[in-house]
Amino acid sequence: MPxxxxxxxxxxxxxxxxxxxxxxxxxxxxxxxxxxxxxxxEHMNQALAVLHTAREPDEAMAAAGDADVWRNMVExxxxxxxx
Length: 83
Prior knowledge:
83 residues; mainly alpha
């Protein structure tokens, strides 16, 4: 299974920053990569909120795999974030 070398919370923060800034989403900048790198810090609390919400799998997710493993993985992603 492929693994990312970037922590999950940071990846989510980058997605949120990109959505706000990039013209590919809700923003207006056609080349927002540098701005996303700077703005991602502003989205860390939102990213953590997403992870806290994602801790508990829904019925379809639980039926597809081990809910405890999922919960442990999301908890590890939350714990990895240090202010």
